[in-house]
């Protein structure tokens, strides 16, 4: 194994120097704490990295899949051995509560565990032929070079959903992480290199948005990128999709969500309140799977809203190294985005959840806040009652600690409200009636549905992905992602010793 892998290391094994403007990745719970200083690459960075990757990929594809499986399993073991320090880095760099950061790191380990086995499977098929003395086969073939562009809200787990299967399938990767999660990304890449992934096979590139697009366009034009994986907003994902479409490529897009949670009249309300609290305000609402719209049956509306309001007012918020429901927003850009969402709160909304709206500060304090709110990007939780389907907060992903409530009378109406924003990532229903659960599953347009559980927190071996504005139907995780990183090749092998013609030499009885 050692020699097979070391032969992959070669002249391609060179880092791409960003060489451009300096970017400071800051701790969002203490903005004076600079976690990483990186030089962002210009438009050439991604293009050059893709050329390096293309050269390295040819040899990597020759490494037997079970051996590649052992390499990704080695990454899993290294991540496990460094679990606490990686989680601490994630908490420091993006403000995710430490318990959640540990869970996120575990998700990499789970992903690596799963794909160790796939290295020994990666099955093709034997297929019967129409003709005698002829055998047909199918093989999975690596796509080549995957460009992976990831968001920073899940700075280590979500990238691993691309990196691990892409590498396992015999591809090289150019990874462009979110710059505000630069240090977390670097740590994962470092562990992957240490686990035996050659540097030319996994290339880390830092670049701003426009340079990324320019570099990606050049690489697609040159044919050095053969698959694009993108996790981020629906707006940027649409642009990625258009660019890929012009080059006849179908990207793997994991975009935003406006994930509904329906509370049926027979729901266990304590469970539903707990589920809503975690789904909507956990991670400060900054998961693509975060709860967006609460859709509550008229009969239980008042009771549910008052219990949820109480739970929000007593929830622990603050320093993410402690035990809190949520910490700061990811980065200044996200704080600015959330402030503009707050501006769309309308007169017909009943504002609940806190005594104040906006940044937590000395002039707008929060009782029981853990730590010093003045150093970080901390925001009051907002629960908006009386949402209407044409409200901005009802239709758009908000990516912050805000959830709106609307009311329904019939299940059909609840499903219609759930589907109305046009996203389709995750959805949940709280009910004790199996028929309601099944009907909800059938009617809702989400790729992932939960019954009596959170909209967020999908497990690492189920298909992950959405429909509509949430993506192009591609799925990550489990065996389903193999179709993103391999293409089917068929083999038609004739041992009859004569030219047999399909459709023409077939005896039909
Ligand atoms: C994301 O926010 O991009 O299902 C992914 C979840 C996590 C992944 C979220 N396992 O909430």
Shape: globular
SS content category: alpha/beta
Give the tally of β-strands: 17
How large is the share of residues in beta strands? 15-25%
**Approximately how much helix is present in the residues?**
25-40%
Q: How confident overall, as mean pLDDT?
A: 95
Radius of gyration: 24 Å
Main sheet makeup = 7 strands, mixed
Which regions contain 5 or more consecutive residues with pLDDT less than 50?
Answer: 1-17
What does the oligomeric state look like here? single chain
| Arrangement of strands in the largest sheet | 12-13-14-11-10-15-16
Distance between the terminal alpha carbons, to the nearest Å? 53 Å
Total helices: the number is 16
Bound molecules: 2-aminohexanedioic acid
